Each structure stands twice: as structure tokens, then as C-alpha cells.
């Protein structure tokens, strides 16, 4: 009986130690990944160049799930907010937290002209030529804690909307119907 309890206790200690070591390695990896690398990793997922079982991005973190592993989280830059926009003509889907590996927009690799102003009227980008990713989304990194108005033009059709980059705001905009 004592031997069984000792073996079970040893297994629990080993499992706990492994969990803590792996968690620390993941945290160290996230700490070493700089802002540029985070943006590149997000871009690679959007473009289909990075693989993972799933990757999603909320207002503060990129969360990557691999096969049979604990999720790895990466903190986003303190001063920048990620938002992904999928303008559409006919088909869209409801979304709030963008899935870099699951969300699919209607217009893949499309050419767009994008204008973004903040609520104070400052021009963030004016008629910028942008191409949507293979997933049909246009990815933007914008200053945090502001409200923006965005207009998107594609093949003579346009859409505009307002969104914000405050903590807990949505990172996926799929409501811009081109008309």
C-alpha cells in the first residue's frame, strides 16, 4: 500500500514539474519574441505561412495552439492594437475575436484602397493601396485607445464603419458590405 502511494506521489510530482518547466519555457519564448517578431508571426498565420492547429488574436494576446500541446500566448505591443477586416459583397460570417487560422473572408488577395481617420480627424492612412491576405482579410496595427473611421474601396464599391482599439474591443470586423 505504501509503495503504491509513493509511486502515485512520484508521478504527481513528475507531472507537476513537467508542467511548470514547459510553462516556463513557453513564457520565456513569449518574453523573447519582440514586437517585430509578433507582427511577423501574425502575418505568417494570416498568409497561411505559419502552421498550428489554431491561432487567434484578441485585444491583448496572440494565442497559438499546436497539436497536443498547451496553448502558447504572446503579449501584443502595449501601444498597438491588431484588427483584421474582411470587406465583402455577398458572404460574411459573425466574428469578434479573429481566428488567424479559421476566419475566411470573401475577397481573397483582393486589391483595396483604405482610408483610416481617428475620431479627432487625424489621417492615419489615406487611400492606401492594400491587398487582402489569402484568408480574405486586411490586417492593420493601429494605436491603442482610440476610435477610428475606416473606408474601403474595391472595384468601384465602397464600405465604411467605425471601430475602437480599447482593451476588450473586437479584433475581427466582418460587417463591411461593399456596395
Could you explain the architecture of this structure?
This protein is of the alpha+beta class. It is built from two helices and eleven strands; from the N terminus they run ααβββββββββββ. Helix content is 24%, strand content 35%. The strands form three sheets. A four-stranded antiparallel beta sheet has the order 3-2-1-5. The longest helix is centred in the first third of the chain and has 31 residues. The protein is globular and about 45 Å long. 23% of the residues are buried.
List the helices and strands and how they pair.
Layout: H1 2-32, H2 35-46, E1 54-57, E2 61-65, E3 72-75, E4 80-85, E5 98-99, E6 111-118, E7 123-131, E8 138-143, E9 147-154, E10 157-164, E11 172-173
Parallel strand pairs: 4-11
Antiparallel strand pairs: 1-2, 1-5, 2-3, 4-8, 6-7, 6-9, 9-10
Brief summary of the model shown:
This protein is 24% helix and 35% strand. By secondary structure, it is α+β, with helices and mostly antiparallel strands. Strand 6 (111-118) and strand 7 (123-131) form a beta hairpin.
Cα Rg: 20 Å
String of helices and strands: HHEEEEEEEEEEE
**What is the spatial order of strands in the main beta sheet?**
3-2-1-5
What distance lies between the first and last C-alpha atoms, to the nearest angstrom?
75 Å
Our estimate of the beta-strand percent is 25-35%
As residue ranges, the low-confidence spans are 5-32
Please report the number of helical segments. Answer: 2
Q: Structural class of the helix and strand makeup?
A: alpha+beta
Amino acid at each position: 500500500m505504501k509503495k503504491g502511494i509513493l509511486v502515485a506521489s512520484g508521478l504527481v510530482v513528475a507531472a507537476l514539474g513537467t508542467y511548470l518547466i514547459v510553462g516556463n519555457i513557453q513564457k520565456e519564448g513569449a518574453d523573447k519574441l519582440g514586437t517585430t517578431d509578433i507582427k511577423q508571426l501574425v502575418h505568417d498565420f494570416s498568409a497561411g505561412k505559419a502552421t498550428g492547429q489554431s491561432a487567434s488574436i484578441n485585444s491583448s494576446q496572440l494565442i497559438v495552439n499546436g497539436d497536443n500541446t498547451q496553448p502558447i500566448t504572446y503579449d501584443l505591443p502595449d501601444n498597438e492594437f491588431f484588427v483584421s477586416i474582411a470587406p465583402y459583397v455577398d458572404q460574411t460570417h459573425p466574428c469578434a475575436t479573429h481566428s488567424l487560422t479559421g476566419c475566411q473572408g470573401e475577397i481573397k488577395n483582393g486589391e483595396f484602397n483604405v482610408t483610416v481617420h481617428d475620431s479627432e480627424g487625424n489621417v492615419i492612412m489615406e487611400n492606401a493601396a492594400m491587398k487582402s491576405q489569402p484568408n480574405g482579410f486586411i490586417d492593420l496595427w493601429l494605436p491603442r485607445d482610440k476610435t477610428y473611421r475606416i473606408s474601403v474601396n474595391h472595384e468601384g464599391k465602397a464600405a465604411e464603419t467605425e471601430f475602437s482599439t480599447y482593451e476588450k474591443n473586437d479584433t475581427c470586423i466582418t460587417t463591411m458590405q461593399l456596395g
